[in-house]
Amino acid sequence: MKDVYITRISKFLPNEPVDNDQMEEKLGIIDGRASKARRIVLRNNQIKTRYYAIDEKGETTHNNAQLAAAAVEGLCDENFTVQDIELLSCGTSSPDQILPSHTSMVHGFLKNRNMEINSASGACCSGMNALKYGYLSVKAGETKNAACAGSERTSSWMKERVFQNEVEHLKNLEESPILAFNKEFLRWMLSDGSGAVLLESEPKGNTPLKIEWMDGYSYAFEMETCMYAGADKEENGTLTPWSEFPAEEWGQRSLFAMKQDTRLLGDNILKKGVHSLKMTYEKHGIGPEDVDYYLPHISSYYFKQGLYDEMKEQGIEMPWDKWFLNLQNVGNIGAASIYVMLEELVASGKLKKGDKILFHVPESARFSYMYAYLTVC
């Protein structure tokens, strides 16, 4: 087995940053009335700016595959071109289509050469699953390098046209706020962008990062669905897929809008996250004292203190001075978030040889968690 290093890192954030006052103009006002849920969600998540693949006229500037391709191209220069990539592995929760696969479309935009590709589906963990596929390929000697990426273009899923048939629900916000809040919640949480890394078996580059290990945990065996799209959630917690509804009901039920069961989210995302973190610590014989930079992907600053408190409660408290976050400035980019966080950490110039970095990436879809432990070389 070979060692695996992150030798190049890139990010791509489309267009200009969008502040809180511009959000509704970009995504569109539903039923001609400003959202009542928007201020509640923004007050809790504390995101100040984010990025959308939408121009000043409201037109789409990039699809998801183009965002991912731009990040992968950002890994390349005259010394390493797209022609040199041996494996392309990408993850997203917002693919542009059901088929072909997301990575097939990214490959199509790169127009480089015949090579192996892998598409990881899911939500935020899909970017980490894409990374692990590349990590295992290089580690096993199957490929000399792998370009791995995470990307999202959720803005197109959050435009007002997607929710037009839900207007009556939104009109009842004061009488039935939980229903409306669950329908609208993610509009004010998610944003667009991409990030990519190049994996190689030698420590090249200015700040190579050795991947010591990667772990994943799923709680789907005991938890019902929390975040979903392309389905309707029944009272018993099961999902009925879009394919089982008549076509005329797809829009009436907003089946292709992303939805979040916020009750399940608040009750479980932190407990399961710390439970799995504790397991990965025990598996590898490490603890918070063995981490110099802790990169948790949190969807909202609402969860920041709660995560700290839960870790303290379970005896694995992570000191605040080890946390590295960028949510306020770039928003929640789902599968791309951890890539963009790492790129900003490396670009900060703070890292020194021997530093240890821990990724902690949760996915609320049905409660999955991914971890990676890196050493600065």
Automatic annotation (TrEMBL):
Source organism, top-level taxon: Bacteria
Domain Beta-ketoacyl-[acyl-carrier-protein] synthase III C-terminal: 282-359
Record carries keyword Transport: no
InterPro entries to which the protein is assigned, alphabetical: ACP_syn_III_C, Thiolase-like
Pfam families cross-referenced by the UniProt entry: ACP_syn_III_C
GO MF terms held by the record: acyltransferase activity
CDD domains: init_cond_enzymes
Biological process per Gene Ontology, one example term: secondary metabolite biosynthetic process
Keywords recorded for this protein, A-Z: Acyltransferase, Transferase
PANTHER family found in the cross-reference section: 3-OXOACYL-[ACYL-CARRIER-PROTEIN] SYNTHASE 3 (PTHR34069), BETA-KETOACYL-[ACYL-CARRIER-PROTEIN] SYNTHASE III (PTHR34069:SF2)
The protein, known as: StlD/DarB family beta-ketosynthase
